[in-house]
Structure prediction request, 166 residues.
Amino acid sequence: MGNYYPVYKTIWTSSSFNALDSNGKLVYLYLLTNNFTTQLGVCRIKPSYIATDCGIKEIEVIKLLKGMHKLKIITFWQNENLIFIHKFFRYTKGTIKSPITLSKALLREHELLNKPELWELFSAEFSKELLEITNALKDILEKNKKNGNAEKIEDLNKLISEVDSL
Prediction:
């Protein structure tokens, strides 16, 4: 992941974001932009790290994360220090321009995090984005077929089938 991670200003008009107090907003913005959050909005981080970086007591961070979980802003598996950020792409959309890069990130994360509940949430939350990825990959495949690039065709077919199987 790069060092630059923009957050769209529409976050400030979100009712769920505005339901948070100032520390909650800080922690949520931290989740969107910290080094532990993947390109897919999955974050494996200890609450103590969040507390240190945000200047908030760890017990308060845990309380805030549980509150965000109840509001369905995130899903928080406390015992695993794992967080899934709902609507991640809404606020960070466009950070990955290439469907190939995004699909490879998806497959890498899926392999690293063997947590079916997480991937069910991801698929439900981002079904539109997953369809867009698949369609973009198919467009790239068609262009490569026209150009006769057999090596890329094989790689793209494999990538499309792997993404479709998730």
